[in-house]
Fold these 3 entries.
Entry 1:
Amino acid sequence: MKTYRIAVIAGDGIGPDVLAEGIKILETVARMDGTFSFEFTHFPWGCEYYLKEGRMMPEDGMDILKQFDAIYLGAVGFPGVPDHISLRELLLVIRKGFDEYVNVRPVKLLKGAPCPLANVKREDIDMVVIRENSEGEYSGEGEWLNKGTPEEVVHQTGVFTRKGCERIMRYAFDLARKEGKSVTSVSKANALNYSMVFWDQIFHEISKEYPEVETHEYLVDAAACHFVRDPGRFQVVVTSNLFGDILTDLGAAIAGGMGLAAGANLNPERKYPSMFEPIHGSAPDIAGTGAANPMASIWSASQMLDFFGYENYGKLVIDAIEDVLVEKKHLSPELGGNAKTNEVGDAVQEKVAARMQHR
């Protein structure tokens, strides 16, 4: 039997609440399949750890994580710890250190999920955003000069490499070719006269390698407008680190809310572990109350199944989430219900089990 070793970093706020439900689903799928299993190892890293130890993770944290097949992350962030510390000293360290250069964020309106847009069909919101995840605007390069003086100045440098741009674009094109979809590049070359002109140039070069794939290009402001006005025009979207971060939150807003927003940070070559996470944040005000929606963490668990080669089970989990959404008996307060976090997880687990019995 194949055993997948998963490092669990539940993190802060509602992270432990929602990850418990995702783990429940993964264990159910593995148990009912019978040919593989999961072994979960929990690490107490995050903001609470930082307040005690002065670090978000131990000095040898990356060496520890390197031994695992995947990382399952809950949420990072808590009052008293600045966001730039909680982000840059854990999440970004892992993404960059393990070369998780592909960030995959589905923007899909599930059956039964609420949508704030009028006159939009459910099938019109069905895209995946492929975000460059290792460089760009989040490279952390720059300088802060003359602090505390009238001459104070900061430089924030975005780093775009040919290797980085080519590999993320090829990933997007390969996905589009596999699924028979178009690729849309989102940039801002009219204002960012080095980085985004470079990005556009490489997109044109790579697109010639995939003549059968339909392509489109938008400036990021126009893309944001069309996400709302006409989301059906997008299928596979490829964009930079910053633009992808912003657009996928907008995507979550039109596709049921942040409680249904999942993300995968992939090292496609599998030299290092990939990381799977809900992207809704830590919401410390509702931590431990049972009000958190675990569906995003369950969706990210389905992405883990996809990555390990069990795409049939990944789809089955999404179908089970839709069953619960359509039934409307076990929904979190965010979705207009009164079910507790574990009750939503139990409902999805029940649907997963039922679907696996009848597959």
Note: The domain at 1-106+260-359 is CATH 3.40.718.10 (Isopropylmalate Dehydrogenase).
Entry 2:
Amino acid sequence: MKITPLAIAITALTGSLNAWAAKPAAEPISPIQPAVITNPKLVELGKKLYFDPRLSKSGAISCNSCHNLSMGGTDNLKTSIGHNWQKGPINSPTVLNSRFALAQFWDGRAKDLKEQAGGPIANPGEMAFTHELAVDVLKSIPQYVAEFKSAFGTDAVDIGRITTAIAAFEETLVTPDSRFDKWLKGDKKALNEKELAGYALFKNSGCVACHNGPAVGGTSFQKMGVVEPYKATSPAEGRSAVTGKDADRFNFKVPTLRNVELTYPYFHDGEAATLEKAVDVMGRLQLGKQFTTDENASIVAFLKTLTGKQPNFKLPTLPPSSNATPQPKPFE
């Protein structure tokens, strides 16, 4: 048989196609990578500020109150409790893996974690303080002044440095090594058949159009209620409150699904108490699909494999107040 240049070309092309077909397709979700700490003194300062309730008017509410690191970085309430037992207008999203989000808050009004950190301190319905009073409190505590100098090079204390430190700590709150991450990295025994079937449904049904990337979400704003309208119990308008555009009404940041087993209840109004309810509602309202009981159970089984290694660190011992530290006012 005579081998012609055309035959050689066809053989080479066929080999390339076979190699391409044998290569596994890239997954829409990527593994979470462990945090890399470049300024440990700044992170340690931020950790103390994150847990310090003296940044609130009452002296009782800290960042950890609504984003409890023992509870998946949230508070497991439909809406959070603010100063003087005020009912919050919206569900508290998890702080875990929030570094991967395109913006912060459900409506994306803060461009990053630093900008977000200053919001609750001055919000009258949350910590009910002012940035000026928060600075005065920290300036009055000698150990804090020394730690600001150690972290920043000078002992100046201002709201910019406060939020920079809190954000630096929050940047470390990632949750690698979930069973799904292990599967992505090649451990094919990390997931069972039901969980794999759930992941296949998750992809084939279109969930990955919004829930993708390392955080399995957080990278886009989407309308809540695409196929059917969603009847919310929260007054939140979504992205339109930031942009002023009616087209953005009811557009919210897609939440991360990392650790979703821990971060109930679900949606911006906290109306879905269980993962099963959340999967059912999302299927009908966003995809126009009614999942069967078995399909729902498979997707839920997959979602539970996204729970990663939770932040594990020594709780900070907060520096004592001085005689000059402003006193909290919990009942005003």
Note: Residues 5-24 have pLDDT under 50 and may be disordered.
Entry 3:
Amino acid sequence: MKKYLLLFCLMALVQVAFASSDPTDYPLTETRVMKDSVVIEFGKSGKVVIMVESKEDFEKLKLMNINQIISELDLEENKQTGELTIVEIRKKDGSVKEVVKVYEDGLETEVNVAGVRVYVDESGENTRVKVETGGRKKSDPPFRSYFNVDLGINNYLEDGSFPTSDNPYAVKGWGSWQVGLNWMASQRISKGFHWNFGIGFQWYNFKFENRDFQAVRGEDMIEFAQRTDVDGFKSKISASYLTAMTLLELDFGKMNDSKRGLSLAVGPYVGYRLGGQSKYVYEELGGSGRKKDKEATGLYLENLRYGLRGEIGVGRITFFTTYDFNELFQEGKGPELNPITFGIVF
């Protein structure tokens, strides 16, 4: 099907491209139309007419088949993009005008001729042919790499629910930020279906709602000490991780040849802790200026974190959520808390 498409576009549509060009750009040559011709009929109403000028040309034509005709065009394909140029015009000023281009990727072929786009999809049971005008649309590349940023709000679940305010480690939503820097790559499996994978750095902050409690390192576990000797302003635990992730993505917009649409992605992740500490900002009673206490409470944090990540894209906006299957603290070293994050991807 693709070879027939290339041949017919080359024979029928290139004439349109030449006819629409400025004749002063190209040298004039004398053209003679002969009455001798070969008519090839196909299907119910398809027809190709080939003009020959002599008996010798006709004898050579009889020995050729359609595969040979195409192969003798001596086309050079860009192996990385699947792109090849069939016809180009070199003007007197040295510039080049591309008339016919073909983009091929497996069972999908796209032919662009003078602003007309012919798309053939043979990946399903039935062959789909779509004709568009207005130039070539930006295609979905088979592989790409990119960089994105996560910005989210952290909390954690204890026995399936968020800790209440009477717990010293209850989290204050505003200020409990998660920031992630991710280097990602995407491999297209089929139209609108991608495998995304990457690696990144994540910084987690859990800001306590009750700022009178400070997380300190006890002898064998983390402790939450109530500070009545100072005025507390901020109390939190922070941790950083090197994280690898992989997701399977369905992009319904690309499936329907739309620029923007709904997309869904889900997949696991695993991370290794790089650091962790507690921070307490306070002011002594009577006023002395703000001071900071920092403790390396990372000793009681789990070194390995793993869980599930989900993403929902609506137009240009992508939301994400992560849930850690492991607990934040080591077993027996602190409360049983599973971190959870909600945010947006930039």
Note: The CA atoms of residues 241 and 274 lie 5 Å apart.
